[in-house]
Design the sequence.
């Protein structure tokens, strides 16, 4: 077992005194306060980043606004697509660098950083690039009475909304940042990104690559720092849309702030307490590897991943025995070691939160398998299964956003649906079964933005993604994002 060698370019990048990225260049921070970035596997400080202030946010917004008016909104759709494709090429050329940055700051297994985070960043950028030449309006024929032979025609046109604020969480910072960049740039908008204070580096590097790709200075800006950077962005009158991905409490605060800021448009991609429903006909041996992979990927720190397994009573004992055995085989270790199967949690505050949930479960004697907090350096906990029966239990109700999953038996479909839909969240769900009519009857009854059948946690740019209930407002991907990033203008002509 050995760790991958950190590239010399990354070693140098880490030692830089990082500032913000505004108007196509690095801008040194005004405040002397710095945020330390720790490798979650070792707790060693690996870099520091700047704490942005209001003045720097305003500079970044001005830069994005100028670039919108004077450059990007007037660039031909073909050229916008070309440049996003070029950025995707550069992501691939620098894939190992970006993957190492992600792994060093998030604790994501190196192969997950390579084959999911970075690879999908390029895939999504190319998908959005393709949309640039395909965004269009419609023509209409009004029925207004004609007194003197005049005629009427009407059409709609989609115009880019302007400067977008993209606020990004720490779990997939590069890929989620790229979703926001792709949506904004393909429609002709410009963007100011606010990465999470824990995982800032890969987006700073992506902004540099955008300049290399020929994307004009000011089209992509990055201001680093804490939550107040996001607040300044939302309050800026030149920001016309906020695209937020993160937790429900922050999302609600952001939505309210955006409404107060002259009804700034806002889309919210928030948390979930997602259900995987295992019906009576399921072959446990067959589904288990895929289900556990989808559940414990990135140590469960995936908004779409299941946190509750609803298992039909007839399969409950078999499921618990086999799932417990399987998760105990996970090799827990350094995320830079290609043979590790399970790494650390991403940052210390989150580690404390998950630890508190595990301690609560231990106190209540709810642990079926796993549940240990590993001693030594790094934010490591075991993949865990809990037995939860009470729907008011905090472990049933709250998103742990960790590898802490409940197994809940059910007898009837009605009882199961009542429990699944009891949640205030509604991001994703999956149904595991080959009983076609039962599955098709269940799909409309499950309250979730995405329902998968015999799969879970797969996102594809051609399929819309977003939550219902407290899991969010708006949809990303497919053509669903276009509404959020453009204004629909109606034109009527009398002739
Ligand atoms: P947070 O809500 O804590 O933070 C998200 C981002 O918002 C960070 O950049 C954060 O900055 C910033 N922020 C914090 N406070 C404010 C504020 N008052 N105003 C503006 N911005 C603010 O989420 P996490 O980073 O902890 O991410 C985990 C959450 O994200 C989970 O709930 C998960 O389910 C959800 N998520 C949802 C996804 C989806 O597509 N639906 C996808 C991925 C994650 P800072 O980090 O500096 O505090």
Sequence:
């Amino acid at each position: 077992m050995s760790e991958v060698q950190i590239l010399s370019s990354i070693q140098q990048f880490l030692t830089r005194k990082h500032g913000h990225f505004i108007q196509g260049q690095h801008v040194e921070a005004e405040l002397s306060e710095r945020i330390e970035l720790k490798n979650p596997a070792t707790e060693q400080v690996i870099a520091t980043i700047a704490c942005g202030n209001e003045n720097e946010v305003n500079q970044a917004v001005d830069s994005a606004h100028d670039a919108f008016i004077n450059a990007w909104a007037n660039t031909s759709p073909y050229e916008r697509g070309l440049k996003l494709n070029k950025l995707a090429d550069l992501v691939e050329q620098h894939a190992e660098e970006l993957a190492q940055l992600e792994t060093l700051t998030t604790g994501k297994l190196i192969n997950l950083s390579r084959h999911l985070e970075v690879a999908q960043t390029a895939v999504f950028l190319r998908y959005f690039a393709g949309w640039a030449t395909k965004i269009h309006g419609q023509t209409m024929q009004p029925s207004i009475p004609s007194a003197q032979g005049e005629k009427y025609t009407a059409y709609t046109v989609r115009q880019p909304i302007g400067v977008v604020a993209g606020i990004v969480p720490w779990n997939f910072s590069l890929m989620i940042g790229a979703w926001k960049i792709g949506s904004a740039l393909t429609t002709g908008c410009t963007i100011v990104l606010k990465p999470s204070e824990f995982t800032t580096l890969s987006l700073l590097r992506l902004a540099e690559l955008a300049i290399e790709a020929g994307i004009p200075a000011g089209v992509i800006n990055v201001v680093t720092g804490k939550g107040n950077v996001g607040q300044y962005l939302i309050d800026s009158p030149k920001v016309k849309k906020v695209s937020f991905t993160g937790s429900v409490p922050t999302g609600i605060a952001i939505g309210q702030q955006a409404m107060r800021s002259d009804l700034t448009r806002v889309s919210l991609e928030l948390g979930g307490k997602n259900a995987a429903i295992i019906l009576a006909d399921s072959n446990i041996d067959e589904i288990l590897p895929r289900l556990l992979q989808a559940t414990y990927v990135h140590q469960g720190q995936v908004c779409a991943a299941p946190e509750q397994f609803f298992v039909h009573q007839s399969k409950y004992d078999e499921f618990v025995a086999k799932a417990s055995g399987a998760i105990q085989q996970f090799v827990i270790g350094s995320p830079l070691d290609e043979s590790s199967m399970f790494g650390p949690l991403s940052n210390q505050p989150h580690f404390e939160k998950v630890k508190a949930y595990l301690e609560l479960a231990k106190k209540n004697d709810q642990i079926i398998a796993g549940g240990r907090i590993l001693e030594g350096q790094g934010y490591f906990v075991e993949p865990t299964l809990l037995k939860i029966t009470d729907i008011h239990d905090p472990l049933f109700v709250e998103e742990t956003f960790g590898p802490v999953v409940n197994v809940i038996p059910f007898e009837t479909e009605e009882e199961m649906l009542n429990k699944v839909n009891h949640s205030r969240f509604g991001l994703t769900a999956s149904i595991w079964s080959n009983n076609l009519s039962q599955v098709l009857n269940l799909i409309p009854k499950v309250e979730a933005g995405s329902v998968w059948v015999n799969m879970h946690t797969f996102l594809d740019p051609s399929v819309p993604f977003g939550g219902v209930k407290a899991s969010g407002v708006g949809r990303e991907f497919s053509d669903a994002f276009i509404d959020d990033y453009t204004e629909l203008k109606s034109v009527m002509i009398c002739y």
The domain at 274-461 is CATH 3.40.309.10 (Aldehyde Dehydrogenase; Chain A, domain 2). The chain has 16 helices and 20 strands.
